[in-house]
Amino acid sequence: MEDQKQILEEVFGESSDKEGEGEQQSGDSFDEEQSVNQSEKNPIWERIEEISGLWLYRDFLSLERQSSLLSAIEKEGWFTEASHNQAMRFGDLPAWAIELSESIRKAVWFCDISECGDSSTCDQDKEEVCPLPSDLLWREPLFDQLIVNVYQPGEGICGHVDLMRFEDGIAIVSLESACVMHFTRVKNETSNIGYDGKEDTLMVKIPVYLTPGSLVIMQGEARYLWKHEINRKPGFQIWEGQEICQKKRTSITLRKLCHAKKAKVRERKEKFLLLLSYVDHQSCE
Ligand SMILES: O=C(O)CCC(=O)C(=O)O
Ligand SMILES: [Fe+2]
């Protein structure tokens, strides 16, 4: 445990247990104090049992952190026109997104400790044990592609598996309106059965309730063998028997480009690639 504490301090700096030493953090930037949600030291991750590799951390972001993120996004000026509802960025991410990535890394790392207790006996690379295996958790950068989606009430995203040009280990942070994301198994290309060999599981929709400030990690089966979708048409956003009252929803998706594609992108674009486009959310059928 001592070793782990030392590694933690090397990676993330000294723990902020030393409250009351008179050090005041100031300014409207993402300072350390602000970024440390109380639960960050003891994150409560939920493993979605039906889907291997799907993890949810409901209280990932404090209310303050959620509003700071929304202001940072607003300051980017990506959504000044009503017709803009999606922004993508590749390569070097804005400071707030890098900070968010590091918070994700930290939350996963703390999960390792709380789940395992003793790192010498714990197989951290099992999908059932922690949200990201160590090869993904310690890659650099953790993420180099960002999408911010803004959905008006009634808008969602059709069922899809994220493109193969992205590595395993995808994070989604939810802001503003809560919603239900549904997961369905990917169909095997040659037959009408799911990858688990069962036909009936194709029909099964697993609902996951995404509250503002929550973090989802998709890894392994959840990333490759399940489609995810958000249908915000009337009648689809039901949680615990109640229709969710919809407001505007913002989400931040963080991914890492696969190496070859990354090189290609770098070739084509010298530094940043910022795409601003209007996406017809949920016009898939
Ligand atoms: O908005 C979301 O929560 C999901 C976004 C998503 O699935 C994507 O950008 O690929
Ligand atoms: Fe996606």
UniProtKB/TrEMBL annotation:
One of its GO terms (biological process) is DNA damage response. It comes from the Eukaryota. Residues 1-41 are annotated as: Disordered. InterPro entries: AlkB-like, AlkB-like_sf, ALKBH7-like, Oxoglu/Fe-dep_dioxygenase_dom. Gene3D superfamilies: Alpha-ketoglutarate-dependent dioxygenase AlkB-like. Residues 142-258 form the Fe2OG dioxygenase domain. Pfam families: 2OG-FeII_Oxy_2 (PF13532). Belongs to the alkB family. PANTHER family: ALPHA-KETOGLUTARATE-DEPENDENT DIOXYGENASE ALKB HOMOLOG 7, MITOCHONDRIAL, SPERMATOGENESIS ASSOCIATED 11-RELATED. This is Alkylated DNA repair protein alkB homolog 8 isoform X1. It comes from Nelumbo nucifera (Sacred lotus). The gene is LOC104598977.
